[in-house]
Specification:
2 domains; 3-stranded mixed sheet; about 25% helix
């Protein structure tokens, strides 16, 4: 499947378009590989002096494709890899957004949210680094 479309709309300009608009142009292992190969080939395109990256269908990208990336990362044996390649994956969301319910108390500012995420990984005895970022760099 092709995820990336490359055009040259003007002299010296390459337009690289993420082209899965029906899914809001999510990134997968295959699309990352295709992007890598595309950019490697553009390095040798002497006529290209600038690259513009866009998304088809009015969306740039919805980010990593949950269905195609998270499963292989958390259960690699079910996807043809070794079970030892698995790692713990924690996907927090802001209180009241994403998969979280609305907070029942006030005071959930960025600092409190970051500490809640850190405390969760500590309680899980997770070996992963403890760092949380959202709203740009508001949480560290």
């Amino acid at each position: 499947m092709t995820f990336v479309r490359v055009e040259q709309p003007r002299d010296a300009v390459a337009l690289v378009t993420l082209d899965r608009p029906e899914r809001k142009n999510p990134l997968t292992f295959e699309s990352y590989a295709e992007l890598r190969d595309t950019f490697r080939s553009l390095v040798y395109a002497r006529q290209v002096k600038a690259v513009v990256i866009a998304g088809a269908g009015g969306n740039f990208s919805s980010g990593g494709d949950v269905h195609e990336i998270i499963g292989p990362l958390t259960a690699p044996a079910e996807h043809g890899a070794s079970a030892t390649d698995a790692f713990h994956l924690v996907i927090p969301s802001l209180p009241g957004h994403g998969f979280s319910g609305k907070p029942t108390e006030t005071g959930w500012d960025p600092v409190r949210i970051a500490w809640a995420w850190v405390d969760t990984t500590v309680e899980m005895n997770s070996p992963m680094p403890r760092h949380a970022t959202t709203k740009g760099s508001a949480i560290r």
